[in-house]
Design a protein that fits this description.
Strand order of the largest sheet: 2-1-3-4
Shape: elongated
Order of helices and strands: EEEEEEEH
Distance between the termini: 77 Å
Oligomer: single chain
């Protein structure tokens, strides 16, 4: 997180179905430059966006939600994919915290968003378990069917 107003800036997400309900991830004096926050969605929402709040001003990643005084339709978020991560799962979100007439440098807050590795679905787990059991049975039968050598 890089921001000049770290004591008052907040960052979080909202669901598309209720953009007025903000879920703060960090900020408001609870985070310092370089802070790492880990958030895990067990059932990630299908339609969500990010917000950035500076004092009473809120900028949404969906620019159509920004109020008329806060550059309606102007994007305040820039998304970049980090190619140096395994499977290219890391993304960088740059935020512009100024309203009308801002400098649009998208470096007022920078967030790394790691999509992480894909988690297998329950069906995939069941298939892997079945394969492991079948392999175990095959190996057991091969070992038990070998004639044993009797030493007299």
């Amino acid at each position: 997180m890089v921001a000049g107003n770290v004591g008052s800036d907040t960052f979080g997400y909202y669901l598309e179905s209720s953009p007025g309900t903000l879920h703060q991830l960090f900020g408001g004096g609870t985070a310092e430059v370089g802070t790492t926050v880990t958030v895990t969605f067990t059932a990630p929402p299908s339609n969500y966006g990010f917000y950035f709040q500076n004092g009473n001003t809120i900028f949404y990643s969906d620019a159509t939600l920004n109020s008329p005084s806060n550059d309606p339709g102007v994007q305040h978020f820039a998304l970049f994919q980090g190619a140096s991560t395994p499977n290219n799962t890391a993304f960088w979100i740059g935020v512009e915290d100024e309203g009308v007439g801002g400098d649009y440098d998208y470096n007022d807050m920078i967030i790394r968003f790691d999509a992480g590795a894909a988690t297998p679905e329950p069906v995939a787990w069941a298939l892997m378990a079945t394969v492991a059991i079948v392999l175990g049975i095959v190996i057991y039968r091969r070992r038990s069917s070998k004639p044993s050598a009797n030493v007299a």
